[in-house]
Amino acid sequence: MKKLVSVVAAVAMVGMALPVFAAKKAKTQGKVLNICVWNEEFQSRFRDYFEKAGKLPADVKVNWIITPNQGSAYQNKLDELLLNQENVSADEKIDLFLVEADYALKYVDTPYVLDVKKDIGLKDADLAQQYKYTKDVMTDSKGKLKGVTWQACPGGFIYRRSIAKDVLGTDDPAQVQAALSNWDKFDSVAAKAKAKGYFMLSGYDDAYRVFSDNVGTACVKGNKIVIDPQIKRWIAQTKTYTDKGYNNKANLWSNESFKGAAKNGKVFGYFGPAWFIDFCLAPATLDDPSAPKKLGNGSYGDWAFCKGPQGFSWGGTWICAAAGTDNVDIIRDIMYTMTCDKITMTKIAKEASDFVNNEGAMLDVANSDYQNPFLGGQNHIKMFLDSAKSISKTTMTMYDQGFAEKIQGAMQDYYNGDVDEAKAWDNFYKALIELYPNLQK
Predict the structure, then answer these.
(1) CA 276, CA 297: separation in Å to the nearest integer?
(2) For the whole model, what pTM was predicted?
(3) How far apart are CA 312 and CA 152, in angstroms?
(4) What is the DSSP string of 223-271?
(5) What's the first-to-final CA gap in the chain, in angstroms?
(6) What are the contacts of 417-423 at 24+ separation with CB within 8 A?
(7) Per-residue model confidence as pLDDT tens digits over 406-430
(8) Residue 305 forms beta bridges with which residues?
(9) Is the dihedral of CA 211, 216, 222, 225 positive or negative?
(10) CA–CA distance from 315 to each of 24, 104, 209, 210, 440 (Å)?
(11) Across the strands, what pairs with 65?
């Protein structure tokens, strides 16, 4: 199965007409809503804030097509389904699919995604409170908006309060931030943490997104692979942290990484945005996942949040409507409810601790008595406000996910001393060009 983007490029080069289904709208409402996702995050949001709100028609069945992200499995499955959209029955066609920031651009400029305004029917007024960058990411070369999201993703440093008290003598977010406000200070605290028997970070990849989101140039220009100084700085820091024992030599998303956040874990903190706090880190801190989420259940509640040494954003999940869908009316309701409605947005922020894509809702929550129980009662939303408005994605490319995965994989051998740095770079270029044969060193 050829990659979707290659097919679209071929269509453009030979001047072929775009697929007929891209311009068609179904005349009747479908009874099956097929949604492609890679995990259960959107599924839980959909059920809690759309289905339970009584917005899903009783005669419509939702079919979740879940394919894990690892090894590009999700993208490969999605490409296969979209390319076959014309050849299946109405009830088998993909209606909605999700994309991440790392590969969103792969789908934006294709005929396989409907225009949120012209085709789906959302208005500028509906979208007015969404953060600008979340719309910029999904706007194609002709100015058409091709996807919307319920979340914005400014990030920071989520740290263990009890470890901060032991290392710094305080767990107060303002004072911890002062101690970690630049990388030199962060490195100094890492040394102090090591002396106390702690790891500053869980592993090799923990700080990658902080550095990669602050690059000054895209990872690919034309067909040439470009290495920004921020990426080189991440490699140098991670090698130092590995050699000095400042990290626990864990891979991102591994069980070993999250074990560092358990009650007896020794990891000082993790970098991440709001979705990482609630959806990834908090569950890993519980001794008993079936018991109430409260202080005393594992390390839950023994955490706090600060900006850290460098502002950054990480990720984001966008909802896209597939060309050929027969569920445009439902899709419009989903997109409006989940990404535009201030009441729903505020509920998601307060109940799921997400930083949502609505400036008004976030300002209200930041100025309210909201408390995040995982963060020891801290209202961390106010720390995100300025960062969210300043996020820019001008260096994004369709190669970002592959670049991140291949450089993290290649450099791990260097960090561990299995190869020298030159060999690690050779392995990286080879792996990335195998993934994207059109690229060159």
Answers:
(1) 19
(2) 0.85
(3) 12
(4) TEE---HHHHHHHHHHHHHHHHT-EEEEPTTSHHHHHTTSTT--B-EEE
(5) 26
(6) 421/235
(7) 999 999 999 999 999 999 999 999 9
(8) 158
(9) negative
(10) 32, 10, 9, 11, 26
(11) 36
